[in-house]
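Components:
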Amino acid sequence: MFDVNEYFDGNVKSLAFKAGEDKATVGVMAAGDYEFGTDSQEHMTLISGEMSVKLPNEDKWRDIAINETFIVQAKVSFLVKIGCDSAYLCLYK
Amino acid sequence: MFDVNEYFDGNVKSLAFKAGEDKATVGVMAAGDYEFGTDSQEHMTLISGEMSVKLPNEDKWRDIAINETFIVQAKVSFLVKIGCDSAYLCLYK
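Structure:
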């Protein structure tokens, strides 16, 4: 019913579901540095924890607040720093 | 690293993590009616979807808004109606 995805040796796990017409995941990340690639545009929201991101074409890291949503364009890679166990929502547009 | 929990034949799945000092889960529920029991006090937040709840000692169903948090006392059971795929955060106090 709900697929479980696992990345980075289990340091990132997510559950796939539908958010209206959008594919979506809720997931958790352990403290660490990650690089992700996008297929579609992604709308990511920090639910719990500490996250900063460095998006393509931005030259500075940006701290993400709880409940803040940032948008990542399709077909790019972006960097994420996680300070402690964190949870996120991701909508695939 | 992160345990995956599964309930109701996979219609509810969650990922366990730490939110500061609290044990926490993010999870997904398929449309349906559920009864859950609590061990500790739980602070539940609806992240995505449609949820209504009937808590102990309340005689009416209550619709939960996105980002709304409701508190369920320890050692009780409560009823949840889910209208479509939904995601939630739960903190165990």
